[in-house]
Structure formats: C-alpha cells, structure tokens
Amino acid sequence: MTQYGFGTSLELEPGPFACGFQRGLAMCSDGKVRAVRFPGGGIADTFFSVPAAVDVDGKRVSGFITVETAEGWTTETEDDPAVVKFHAYSERKNGALLPAGVWKRGA
Hints:
Layout: E1 2-3, E2 9-12, E3 21-27, E4 33-36, E5 50-56, E6 59-69, E7 82-88
Antiparallel strand pairs: 1-2, 2-3, 3-4, 5-6, 6-7
C-alpha cells in the first residue's frame, strides 16, 4: 500500500503482472477521506486518471481518481504533499451529493 498525504492511499493488485488498483482511500471535494471502489478493475483509462466510485450517505457516486498535490499541482514538495483525490461526475446519478470541483488545501 502506498501512503499519500492527508490519510489517502492506493494499493495495487497483488502479483507480478499487476496493472490495476485493488483498494484505496481518496480525498473527496467535501474534505472527507472515503474508501474508493474500482468498478473497472482499477485500470487507468487515461495517463492521469482511474475510473472509481465512492459511497456518500449510502449512495454510490461515480467519478475518477488522480494523484496531485494538496494545492493542485503535479509535482509534490516537502510542504505540498501528493494526495489521492476523487473527482465526481456531477452530471451522473448522485453526483450532486458532493460539492462541485475537487478538494484543495486552503480552498
């Protein structure tokens, strides 16, 4: 399991040919860290994101995860750690359960 900032993490599938994520914890736009599900097997659909879902108030919210810094940049520094962030698809079912946008420290 790879640990990231603010209590977030990602774990790859076991085995020598692992290519997807098995489980993780991601920061949601409301500032809460939630367990992430990977309905597509945890395999990236682009270079930067992986399809994912979280549960909010007992309802599934679809979206994707990225790893970026707490302030929204791509390169982490000592005072701006990398964080697993969940981006909800606001136009899909239950998407309105999370605030629009993505979490950023100090925002």
